[in-house]
Amino acid sequence: MASPADAPATLTRRDGVLVLSGRLDAHSVAALWREALAAVTPGAALEIDLSGCDYCDVSGSALLLALEDKAGSRAVLHGASPRIARVIERAHDAYRATAPPAPPPVPSLPVAVGAAVVGKMRDLGERIAILGRTAASAALTALDPLSLRWPDTWHQAEEVGSRALPLICMIGFLFGLILAFQSAVPLRQFGADIFVANLVAVSVFRELGPLLSAVILAARSGSAFAAEIGTMKVNEEIDALNTMGLDPFRFLVMPRLIAAVAMMPVLIIAMNLSAVAGMAMVMMSLGFPWAAVSGQVVNWTGPSDVLGGLAKGLVFGAVVAGIGCSRGMATGVGPRAVGEAATAAVVGGIVAIIVLDGIFAVLFYLMGW
Amino acid sequence: MVIGVAGDAAQEADGPAASVRGVAMRFGANTVFQDVSFEVRRGEVFVILGGSGCGKSTLLKLMIGLRPPSAGTITILGEDIVALRGEARRRLKQRFGVMFQSGALFGSMSVLENVALPIASFTALPAEAIERIARTKLGLVGLADAALRMPSQLSGGMIKRAAIARAIALDPPLVFLDEPAAGLDPITSAGLDSLILSLARDLGITFVVVTHELASILTIADRVIMLDKEAKGVIAEGDPRRLKDESTHPIVRAFFHRTEPGAR
Q: What is the pTM of this model?
């Protein structure tokens, strides 16, 4: 059985006629392409002898068309077998029916800027609309709690909460450990390394606990919400809900939003405890007894630290879930759109969390917390 | 271009385009079909048909090497596709094309780039040659003006045509079509049938088509086999027009005459 390596194409000249012999397919023509084009003089008559050619497909015909284009005049082929002649003719007609793809017009700067601004405004309008609908469904659900899909909410709470616990605890533990370790070294020079316990406890309870938990929520659940809802949008499932008279916001977004808000305190407390455990391990390895460590933590942190962190966490949870779901609702068409929605959900969630954290820091300072 | 013809036509390539022997497919305890055997001759349009759940799409997936059969051998263009591995398997895959049911065009590339992808990946042709060949393939399937469009901008019929153009990108002697008429109106479907017949006639391509569209089958098929879910295998084989007129099998009659099996 002939393989592409057998009878490769050969090109010779004989009395001003180009002789192409052998097998003209994509592979053999590739080897010949440049050489064949170089053998053609623009303006001169082109005659090609194909009597030694035992196979020619559309790719092989493409070479003949390229030679004809370079010559600039109608090529005369002879010696083609009937089957090969049919292929060449078909390829010729197909190619001549196409036009060279025109490069897309490059828009001028004012047009490009204008289009970008209009696009951003439209995006902003859509996001505000989705935010409004989310708020409206939240209000309606609050007024009629039984209308919420509770089984979905429990399921989401499990996904958002219990499934995240191993990751939260591991990251919390490592973070407490690293923070304790790094601060113990400089503080030891002043004999103040016992205060590492306060330092870690206060930073984690007030800032790092809620912040890290929210970032993990955004990475795990924000992206999941966006991808799930985005895929449902691509599969027309959102349209199906609408036509059945079911509000997709109350059906899909509310369970996720409520689950995220409800589970954040759980995640934060788990992270707080894990961080303290990591810190305690470092402190105890430095020789401090557990009583000393726990004493520092209890004496130097108060309910306002923990509760302030939890309050921030509730807001973070709502924001991350809201952004995740709204990115999902705003998904475009095709696989790339779902990927983009998931990315936007994580990035948007993290940016929003950091900005809010800054605002909270100022707020708590002004309130004296 | 002026083409002078000489000599007489055919050197036929040797051997059948595809050969299926004793093939069975089982998922756990569930047997989809067993003891399926048939041959696809070079240059013919061969149709695999049957009702829903009979396993025709599964059979196609076995033939194109996406999964191995539970039993039996499948020979594609003279090579055992089940046993082949590595470089030899890759080379065999370049020798047949597949048109998937929904087109499976790559959404992030233009139509021209979709068709050019196999050519650019597997040949050493210069870029201008690849563009020329891809444009020719698009011209062959009737999409001369759609080269720069994205798949999301194409209608259903155009998607199928673009998918066929990509399937023939490397000039394969054998092309598989999975439900080409799915989702198409009768006029567009008839256009696709004409395209298949003209490609078979002019380029000598062997087609294996999985379908259940009666009108298409009677138009394009040289030979068919019919699978049945209950019988878990082949219940009819041959020229579809003869099967329609002469078969006495109740399910075959019901299929070709659009009646419920059991009705008179």
A: 0.80
